[in-house]
């Protein structure tokens, strides 16, 4: 059972454009939603995260939009740059209730930003 | 840099063998998780250790086992290796409610 569905699988954007990656989750108990960026040969790096008490979080060029009723959240990358070319993963976890921080990941989106 | 290191970087084993992968995190990070990332897939949770005790396990068989040591370093052991165990194995250290991943160990099973 895939608890976090991510789309699209791949995305090509021109430099300066907006990249949008979407995720949907099934478990309504999830209360922590991070996005990770992964370059080839590297481990995932935390990019930005949101908790369901807010609908949007912005850090620099990266914005998470969160829709609790629709059980969806998305990553927007403004002014996309070739250096943003990487694989992006959304994830979700149950943060509350103890120290179990198991992350459930989407399958990833390969972003290519053309110069 | 996340402060999480893993060794070895790459490893080649044959089916049926056993393997031990190692992870070291910054002092005070008392929660470590291990994930398996197959090629082209997102990481999948294997298990988590908190203060040297297993504290949560994903859908992996018992031949996947782990240890966490008093210095918060950790090991992932896999017995009776199968071809499908070929993957990138990641450990993640918990700090200020955020998980930081190491670079991973690429395991190839032939």
Please provide a written account of the structure:
The complex is a heterodimer of chains A (115) and B (110). With 115 residues, chain A is mainly beta. Chain A has strands spanning 4-7, 10-14, 19-25, 33-38, 45-50, 56-59, 62-67, 72-77, 86-93, 103-105, 109-114. Chain A is globular, with a radius of gyration of 14 Å. The mean pLDDT of chain A is 92. Chain B has 110 residues and is mainly beta. Chain B has strands at 5-7, 10-13, 19-24, 31-37, 44-50, 53-57, 64-68, 74-78, 87-95, 98-101, 105-109. In chain B, the strands form 2 sheets. In chain B, strands 2, 4, 5, 6, 9, 10 and 11 form a 7-stranded mixed β-sheet that branches. Chain B has a 4-stranded antiparallel β-sheet with strand order 1-3-8-7, with no helix packed on it. Chain B starts with a strand and ends with a strand. The A-B interface holds A 6, 32, 34, 36, 41-46, 49, 89, 91, 95, 99-108 and B 2, 4, 31, 33, 35, 40-45, 48, 50, 55-56, 58, 90, 92, 94, 97-104.
Our estimate of the beta-strand percent of chain A is over 45%
Rg measurement of chain A, Å: 14 Å
| Range of strand content of chain B | over 45%
First-to-last CA distance of chain B: 32 Å
What is the C-alpha radius of gyration of chain B, as a whole number of Å?
Answer: 13 Å
Number of helices of chain A: 0
- Overall shape of chain B: it is globular
Number of strands of chain B: 11
Q: What percentage of residues of chain A falls in helices of 4 or more residues?
A: under 10%
Low-confidence stretches of chain A: none
Residue windows where pLDDT falls under 50 for at least 5 positions of chain B: none
Compressed to H and E, one letter per element, the order of chain B equals EEEEEEEEEEE
């Amino acid at each position: 059972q895939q608890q976090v569905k991510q789309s699209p699988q791949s995305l090509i954007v021109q430099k300066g454009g907006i990249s949008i990656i979407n995720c949907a989750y099934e478990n309504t108990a999830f209360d922590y939603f991070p996005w990770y960026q992964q370059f080839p040969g590297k481990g995932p790096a935390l990019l930005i995260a949101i908790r369901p008490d807010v609908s949007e979080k912005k850090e620099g060029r990266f914005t998470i939009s969160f829709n609790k009723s629709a059980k969806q959240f998305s990553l927007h990358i403004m002014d996309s740059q070739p250096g943003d070319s990487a694989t992006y993963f959304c994830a979700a976890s149950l943060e509350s209730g103890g120290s179990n921080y198991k992350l459930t990941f989407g399958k990833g989106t390969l972003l290519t930003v053309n110069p | 840099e996340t402060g999480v290191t893993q060794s070895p970087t790459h490893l080649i084993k044959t089916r049926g063998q056993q393997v031990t992968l190692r992870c070291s995190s910054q002092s005070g990070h008392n929660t470590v998780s291990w994930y398996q990332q197959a090629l082209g897939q997102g990481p999948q949770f294997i298990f988590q250790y908190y203060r040297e005790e297993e504290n949560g396990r994903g859908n992996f068989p018992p031949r996947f086992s782990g240890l966490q040591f008093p210095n918060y370093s950790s090991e992932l052991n896999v017995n009776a290796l199968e071809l499908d165990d070929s993957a990138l194995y990641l450990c993640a250290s918990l700090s200020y409610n955020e998980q930081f991943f190491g670079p991973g160990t690429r395991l190839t099973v032939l």
